[in-house]
Amino acid sequence: MEAVLDFVMAALPWLTMxxxxxxxxxxxxxxxxxxxKEDNYGSEGMALGMCFGTAIASAMKQDIxxxxxxxxxxxxxxxTSMKKx
Length: 85
Fold this sequence. Notes:
Blueprint: H1 2-33, H2 42-59, H3 64-81
Helix pairs in contact: 1-3, 2-3
């Protein structure tokens, strides 16, 4: 079981980077269609996600860099799904 956990912890940053690149590519594609204004909370979500990811990672005694990247990814995903009025 420990070997599986070690593999997941080693692969998780690469998976997070790939998902983040995919979300950024989708955001850029939507901006080209409507360049006037940003209609979602992507940047606010990333900022809050980094804060929460750091807090959760330090509380669970995990790698803080991993917590920041996963928090940023989750915040970006939640922020881009919410539309501004």
